[in-house]
Amino acid sequence: MIKFNGKEIKAVVFDLDGTLYELSFKVKLHFFLKNLKKWKLFSAHRDIQSDLRGEDLMDGKNFYDTYLAMIAKKAGIDVVKVEDWYFNRFEDVFSDIIRDRCQRREFLSELFDHLRENDVRIALYSDYGFIEKRLDALNIDLQNFEMLVSSELEGVLKPTARPLKKISKTMNIPAENVLMVGDNYDTDGKSAQAAGTSYCIISDAKEEYHCKWDIFLMKMGLKI
Q: For residue 87, what is the DSSP state?
């Protein structure tokens, strides 16, 4: 049995970016520089992503139709070009930077094995789509995860609780026995709170429910 802050954990739901690998300042800077030639689009995408947080568009088609149209309007660029940029250049640049400049967290494979050995089920919950591409870039086998859930494809971004509740319901595990592990309280932490699950934020911040990766591994009972 694995416990976290006194609660029995039967499923762990991991965020991806910044959680399964460290999203350092250098990586973020390189990502911004790679998008400089398309800065109008990139900047609009960031703004619209913030605007849509908390708005439930019900499914992936409605989300992308709304999202891309809003980016096009804000950037003053034809929506067909926005779609091409997002699903081709943006996704590819993101994945390539992860492959070239990021490494998965230490002892990640050992952690997955440890969780499975203790009958803890594993899911992945990320705001972005193209989850398989990013896992491949990190050389993480997608078979480690029972569920891969994208907020975009669900039609609603974090911190709305619906996708996390869906994971709990699909696995038939009470929310109180689910642990959300992310790197951002405003998205991952608040999603967990809204869904009624426990959460841990991988961070150097000295706040409640925040801890460094090595401390998290020890809390999970992994001997490293």
A: I
Answer yes or no: do 86 and 122 share one domain: no
Strand partners, 125: 149
Mean pLDDT score, 48-65: 96
Q: What is the 3-state secondary structure (H, E, C) of 119-147?
A: CCEEEEEECCCCHHHHHHHCCCCHHHCCE
Residues recorded for the chain:
224
- If asked whether residues 41 and 148 sit together in one domain, one would say no
Residues paired with residue 4 on neighbouring β-strands, in sequence order: 7
Quickly count: other Cβ atoms within 10 Å of residue 149's Cβ: 18
| pTM score of the predicted model | 0.97
85 and 110, same structural domain?
no
User: Is residue 183 domain-resident?
Assistant: yes
Clarify whether residues 126 and 172 are in a common domain: yes
Mean pLDDT for 17-32 is 94
DSSP state of 90: I
* Residue 73 shares a structural domain with residue 111: no
The C-alpha atoms of residue 84 and residue 177 are separated, in whole angstroms, by 41
